[in-house]
Design brief:
428 residues; alpha+beta; Elongation Factor Tu (Ef-tu), domain 3; Rossmann fold; 3 domains; 6-stranded antiparallel beta sheet; 13 strands; elongated
Length: 428
Amino acid sequence: MDLAPGTFYWPSETYGHSPALATRSGWLSLACMPFVFATATKTNWITWLTGVSHERLQVFHRWISYAFFMLALLHTFPFVVYHIRFHDMEEHFSGSLMFYWTGIVALVIQAWLTFVSHSTIRNLGYEFFKMTHFLGAVIFMITFFWHCDHTLTSWDYFIATAALYVPCYVYPWLRTCFKNGINQRAQVVVEDCGFTRITIPAKFDWKPGQHCFLRFTGFGLPHAILSHPFTICSSPSTQPDEQSELVFYIRHQSNFTARLYQHGLENPNTLVPVLVEGPYGGINLQNYNNSDRLLVVAGGSGASWCLPFIEQFARDNSMPADAERGQVTTDDKESLPVSAPSGRNHSRLLSLRVILATRDISSRIWFLRTVGELLSKYPAINVSYIHVEVYLTGDAAEESDLANITPKDPASQASFKESATLNNKLSI
């Protein structure tokens, strides 16, 4: 659409002062802007219409931004070449100062937004990236709006962008304040394996694999402004008189997670003010409900991500025999059809296999103990249909003696045994 027409420059000044390539590129670049913002928010219209979660849309957000920037370059340089060719660059630059300076500032900020967002740079400091990314976007929109100067229908694209972005930006704040609550408190505890466990009472339901964004307002203004994504490692309560709890297990790295870990060590079981935004993402429940066999694979700190799947499977397979056959008997001896939990068909046996690879012996012990405690809450479950395999990798695989470190938990419904085939594997 940009290069295919073939006419890049006009043969003489009589055609005007806008090279054909620059004009096409400018309008195509401007047309990318609503799509960049439409895929930028966690709550967005595309997710609402298609069910595709925001983290998957980040691929489109990133590549549309690349196209946005490349078209902006193709809009800029033809003007430079054109006016140098006709020897009026200085005159045109001084006479159109607003267009050139606002365009230069917008292009520099756009380059920052595009390339600093790469994961290699972003991972160096997430908090710094997020603050500068938001600030840069504000400066870019102001200078770009000024640069367009209501040329033809250019401002219509800004109206379209605002119509797409503003409701999606405001809605999560409204949901956080009025649904999830602004008086939430998080309990921060450091586990034996080094994970930081965060527990927050919840007023909503969620499904396995979903995540929330947490704002810890008690750690200063920067952390109150910024939100951090963490995967939910628990399941909502099924009892009407029991409070659901969001549980997050975090392996500390640097910056905020390191500060949270240190706070948990110095102030165990203390309550910290927090704002909860979400939940987002999650698995495809239709595929989950239609599965005969479930396979969950995780590594390292992803061990905690497996827990909701194990508990969901235990719940779905802990029904009474009558409910499993799809009938219940009333006091009048009348058989009524019932639906299985989560819409699952229980006419056939299901199995769950969890495979975890970790380099940390303490994480393995913690995971197996936690799984045992979780299954102990469902005495009706047949544990023979659940297979949990934990593999040690790296130095831990060479140093460990599984026979000596196998955990024995009398409260667990699962039996832990050493594999006869792999020295670095434990099975439930």
